[in-house]
């Protein structure tokens, strides 16, 4: 039983308490939230990004065509281009199974092209079964210029290809295809289903762009002086301005990132979903296993200046140098940046602090209203973490970012973690946490833990699950909050927990007492359910086994299927010893009651996806 004293006043809970953390990991940006459908659009993929890459990754050339890096390039920061011979063509395979197009929807093609003697490009959308839209012809004449065409898909396909054929020799770069239907119909926009899933959380803040990709790699810029370095840390100036002038980079997670989704787009998205933007900049100490402090005064000064410029980009008037860049990109009004994080999970606390204090001093001198967030390194429950916290306290840091990924049991056992945190010390930003798994029990353990965060809302000011997105065919890290491929996206149980908390942020904690701690280690499952969504599918041989291997439920559908209850708008029937979904129009769930003593169990099921999602 729970006793609540409505008159007692606990901690106030900020509206911004629960947010999201977006990092370009698991192809969360290119091939994910960034709606661009062409992979490697600027021919910049390199073996330096990933040993299996070449500048023609995801492209197939028929006839004569090669990637060139010479003085004829589009611009200094977009160094490669494709030189296509007369009568030749090039085809892009997109991400996952290909380019997804939907019948009746519009798609915007664009390309930067140069053809000194003139050429005609034929641009086609097709799959193995033929055309997916009426092909377009684009006449190209003279030096580099941008050309456009629009398609309306005549069929739906998950395996589309974009082909560009040239009658005469041409140079091509930034070959691009966007759905017209992006989130809020924005240009250079975001994939609608993913953006809507994030928006539906109603997050209080968006922490971006990482994570390990912020403070790993070289701290040099992209220039002739640095040898056009790949594997650079995430530097915001690389990511703004016209997309064709944004240098691509090797992503820490083993692929190439285009920066098409860059700082402007992060700020715009945060504003669109009513969330506080919370960028993270590198502190010149590398983390995530690289553990190196960069000793270069001039470089440190440059990064500190870049951070001041970032604040001007976000908040400065349209007449200021960086405010003007923002205004020219389409947003004259400021983005209202209030918090900024310096560094991410540095393992060298002393070296980090030396640099952090210099960043903070410069920011406070110029922008005293900005909260400069520090971090505690990874929570190794030991020396690094303790030293970092000691330094944070001594330096009177306003807010400290903590990260941890642990078992569900750890989250259940540590509900009281913040009960004993020093109320006069720095506030906590729990920037990354997750229990290890996407199962229901993981969501439950996180929900239990979040009640402890909320109870301590006077100390824990911000919290975000991590990571946010994962493309199922390019996974570096699991679990993740939302999963997707080129045609669908689906939420984890953990997402539902986050949504529940974010959509119901209270104003104030009402202190309560439970007479006993609920025993969540006992039975938690009493049924098995299998759901499909808009898919034609069949199931066979469903088996649930206990952790010790004992069979709890087994059904090969050779006999009576009446013990299964069907819910959802579609219809099912048993055919040839399989449970078959015969209506792929809607969500379908089949449920069979189990035994209330089920606890840890494994589900095995033979399933066939016949078509759809
Ligand atoms: O969220 C995945 C990674 O975990 C982040 O990049 C890093 O900060 C942490 O180690």
Structure characterization notes:
This protein is an alpha+beta fold. 18% of the residues lie in helices and 34% in strands. The strands form 8 sheets. Strands 3, 4, 5, 6, 7, 8, 9, 10, 11 and 12 form a 10-stranded antiparallel beta sheet that branches. Strands 2-13-16-19-20-21-22-23 form an 8-stranded parallel barrel, surrounded by 5 helices. α3 (297-315) crosses α4 and α8 runs parallel beside α9 (493-502). The longest helix is centred in the middle third of the chain and has 19 residues, at 297-315. Bound molecules: alpha-L-arabinofuranose (AHR). Residues 23, 25, 210-212, 288, 344-345, 403, 432, 466-467, 477 line the site of alpha-L-arabinofuranose. It comes from Streptomyces osmaniensis.
In helices, the fraction of residues equals 10-25%
Structural class: alpha+beta
- Could you name the ranges where pLDDT drops below 50 across 5 or more consecutive residues? 520-525
Termini separation comes to: 44 Å
Q: Using only CA atoms, what is the Rg? A: 26 Å
- Tell me the overall shape: globular
Q: What is the CATH level 1 assignment of the largest domain?
A: Alpha Beta
Number of strands: 35
**What kind of assembly state do the chains in view correspond to?**
single chain
Strand percentage lies at 25-35%
CATH superfamily of the largest domain: Glycosidases
The total count of helices amounts to 9
Tally of distinct domains = 3
| Small ligands present | alpha-L-arabinofuranose
User: What name does CATH use for the topology of the largest domain?
Assistant: TIM Barrel
- Summarize the biggest pleated sheet: 10 strands, antiparallel
Average pLDDT number: 92
CATH architecture of the largest domain: Alpha-Beta Barrel
Keywords: Hydrolase, Signal
Protein name: Alpha-L-arabinofuranosidase C-terminal domain-containing protein
């Amino acid at each position: 039983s729970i006793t609540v004293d409505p008159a007692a006043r606990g901690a106030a809970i900020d509206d911004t308490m629960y947010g999201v953390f977006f990092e370009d990991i698991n192809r969360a940006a290119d091939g994910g939230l960034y709606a661009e459908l062409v992979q490697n659009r600027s021919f910049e993929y390199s073996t330096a990004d990933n040993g299996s890459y070449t500048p023609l990754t995801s492209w197939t050339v028929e006839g004569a065509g090669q990637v060139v890096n010479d003085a004829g390039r589009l611009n200094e920061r977009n160094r490669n281009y494709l030189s296509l011979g007369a009568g030749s063509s090039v085809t892009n395979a997109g991400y996952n199974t290909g380019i997804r197009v939907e019948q009746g929807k519009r798609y915007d093609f664009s390309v930067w092209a140069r053809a000194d003697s003139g050429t005609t490009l034929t641009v086609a959308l097709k799959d193995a079964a033929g055309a997916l839209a009426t092909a377009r012809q684009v006449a190209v004449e003279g030096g580099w210029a941008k050309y456009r065409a629009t398609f309306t898909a005549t069929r739906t396909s998950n395996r589309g290809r974009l082909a560009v054929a040239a009658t005469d020799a041409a140079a091509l770069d930034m070959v691009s295809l966007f759905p017209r239907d992006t989130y809020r119909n924005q240009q250079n926009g975001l994939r609608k289903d993913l953006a809507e899933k994030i928006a539906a959380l109603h997050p209080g803040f968006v922490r971006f762009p990482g994570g390990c990709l912020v403070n790993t790699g070289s701290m040099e810029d992209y220039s002739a002086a640095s040898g056009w370095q790949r594997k650079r840390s995430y530097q915001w100036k690389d990511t703004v301005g016209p997309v064709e002038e944004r240098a691509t980079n090797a992503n820490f997670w083993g692929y190439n990132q285009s920066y098409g989704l860059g700082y402007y787009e992060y700020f715009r998205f945060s504003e669109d979903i009513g969330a506080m933007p919370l960028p993270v900049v590198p502190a010149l100490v590398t983390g995530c296993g690289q553990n190196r402090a960069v000793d270069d005064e001039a470089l440190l000064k440059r990064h500190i200046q870049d951070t001041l410029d970032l604040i001007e980009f976000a908040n400065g008037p349209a007449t200021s140098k960086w405010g003007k860049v923002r205004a020219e990109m389409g947003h004259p009004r400021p983005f209202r940046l209030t918090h900024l994080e310096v560094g991410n999970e540095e393992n060298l606390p002393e070296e980090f602090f030396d640099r952090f204090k210099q960043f903070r001093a410069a920011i406070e001198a110029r922008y005293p209203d900005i909260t400069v967030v520090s971090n505690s390194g990874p929570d190794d429950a030991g020396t690094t973490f303790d030293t970092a916290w000691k330094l944070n306290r001594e330096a009177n840091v306003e807010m400290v970012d903590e990260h941890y990924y642990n078992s569900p049991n750890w989250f259940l056992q540590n509900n009281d973690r913040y009960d004993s945190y020093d109320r006069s010390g720095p506030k906590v930003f729990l920037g990354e946490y997750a229990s290890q798994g996407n199962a229901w029990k993981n969501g439950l353990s996180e929900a239990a833990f979040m009640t402890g965060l909320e109870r301590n809302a006077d100390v824990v000011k911000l919290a975000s699950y991590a990571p946010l997105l994962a493309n199922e065919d390019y996974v570096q890290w699991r679990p993740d909050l939302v999963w997707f491929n080129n045609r669908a996206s689906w939420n984890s149980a953990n997402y539902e927990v986050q949504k529940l908390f974010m959509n119901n942020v209270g104003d104030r904690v009402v202190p309560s007492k439970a007479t006993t701690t609920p025993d969540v280690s006992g039975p938690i499952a009493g049924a098995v359910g299998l759901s499909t969504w808009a898919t034609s599918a069949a199931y066979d041989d469903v088996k649930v086994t206990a952790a010790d291997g004992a069979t709890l439920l087994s059904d090969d559908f050779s006999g009576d299927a009446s013990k299964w209850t069907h819910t959802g708008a579609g219809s099912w029937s048993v055919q040839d010893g399989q449970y078959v979904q015969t209506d792929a129009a809607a969500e379908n769930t089949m449920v069979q009651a189990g035994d209330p003593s089920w606890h840890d169990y494994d589900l095995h099921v033979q399933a066939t996806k016949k078509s759809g999602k």
